[in-house]
Input
Amino acid sequence: MKKALVYLVFILAVVTIGALIGMNNVPGEWYQSLNKPFFNPPNWIFGPVWTALYIMIAIAGARTWLQSRMGGRMQLWGSQMLLNFMWSPIFFTMESPVGALILIVPMLICVIAFIIMTSTRDRISMWLFVPYAAWVSFATLLNASIVYLN
Output
């Protein structure tokens, strides 16, 4: 029962905080006015993608917490989560693609480092982070393209 509660808390916390940040940092007129690359996805795709990713991130976080609460993997998990939650306010609310780009690079490094550190200890958590790494890589390219085009 205790393990199930840890998973539930992680999923509810990550998805809820992510949703609240998303709802309070929506793309507005400023974002619409930016030049975007041809591969910029439609806005409706971000909600479902992030919901699925946040669930996978939360499960990996819960698994890591249950294995080693104060270990390096948990510290990486927490670091990438903090950077993740900071990105939307910097990009959309502060209207700073450059600031967001500066933030997303260490976030991607943390995500990749988590995958590497987890690969020999918890393959499930490692694989849960692979789609996240792919998405953050794409988001980094998108963010850098917006900086370049504007």
Summary: The mean pLDDT is 96. The longest helix spans residues 123-149. The helical segments are 2-24, 29-33, 46-67, 72-93, 97-118, 123-149.
